[in-house]
Amino acid sequence: MATLALDLIRCALRRPLPGLAAQLRMAPPGRARAPATAPDAQEAGVLLLVYPHQADLHFVLTRRTDRLGYHRGQISLPGGRREPGDADLVATALREAQEELGISAEQVDLLGALTALYIPPSNFIVQPVVGYASARPAFRPNTEEVAELIESPLRLLLDPATRQTGPLPQGGPDVPFYRIGEHVVWGATAMVLSEFEMALRNAGAG
């Protein structure tokens, strides 16, 4: 089952990506409808890691601690800003995944990349990278950055009931989000997952 699903992911990432249109399905109200960026935007990389667990393919998210400078307490993919020593944004994503969750770069088979996404509130242009680990990593969360490790079956992204719209726990207007267990995944992370979901569907999943 995992092998078939992995083959489908490889196929999905070889096809033309659904891009901005798929990202905007999960954009918060007021989000620009064009891929605008800023000349002083900082670069960042995030890792969407897929791995077998409990006879199913899973992916990992984190709940950020309240001590971080941006997006405190939000659900995110492991990742962060590019540093001078990073060869590229793939290296950034792998380094950050190791720092945040103890995922060794040697464990990760790079499958491809999704469409870069500009995040106006923090002025970051984020490059999502998709990777595969042949076994569930021995996660070691960095408690300075990670308040909670969240593992989800990949099939949940393809379940229509997972994609919802409503107010966030802190209030405010209705926003689109993914319901992953007890967690509300919205904003940039939901936009990245939305493109991944649509890429899988376009390749024949669901």
What does this structure look like?
With about 210 residues, the protein is α+β, with helices and mostly antiparallel strands. The chain has a single domain, classed as Nucleoside Triphosphate Pyrophosphohydrolase. It is built from 4 helices and 11 strands, in the order H-H-E-E-E-E-H-E-E-E-E-E-E-E-H. The longest helix has 16 residues, at about 185-200. The two termini are about 15 Å apart.
List low-pLDDT spans. none
The CATH architecture name reads Alpha-Beta Complex
Number of helices: 4
Please provide the count of β strands. Answer: 11
Measured by DSSP, the beta-strand proportion falls in 25-35%
Tell me the radius of gyration.
Answer: 16 Å
Sheet/helix structural class: alpha+beta
Return the domain count.
Answer: 1
Series of H and E elements: HHEEEEHEEEEEEEH
Top CATH class: Alpha Beta
Could you please say which CATH topology applies here? Answer: Nucleoside Triphosphate Pyrophosphohydrolase
Large-scale geometry? globular
Mean pLDDT, all residues: 91
SSE layout:
Blueprint: H1 2-14, H2 19-24, E1 42-53, E2 56-64, E3 75-76, E4 79-81, H3 89-101, E5 109-113, E6 117-119, E7 124-132, E8 146-153, E9 163-168, E10 171-180, E11 183-185, H4 187-202
Parallel strand pairs: 1-7
Antiparallel strand pairs: 1-2, 1-4, 2-3, 2-8, 5-7, 6-7, 9-10, 10-11
Helix pairs in contact: 1-4
Can you summarize this structure?
This protein has 206 residues and is α+β, with helices and mostly antiparallel strands. The chain contains 4 helices and 11 strands; from the N terminus they run ααββββαβββββββα. Strands 1, 2, 3, 4, 5, 6, 7 and 8 form an 8-stranded mixed beta sheet that branches.
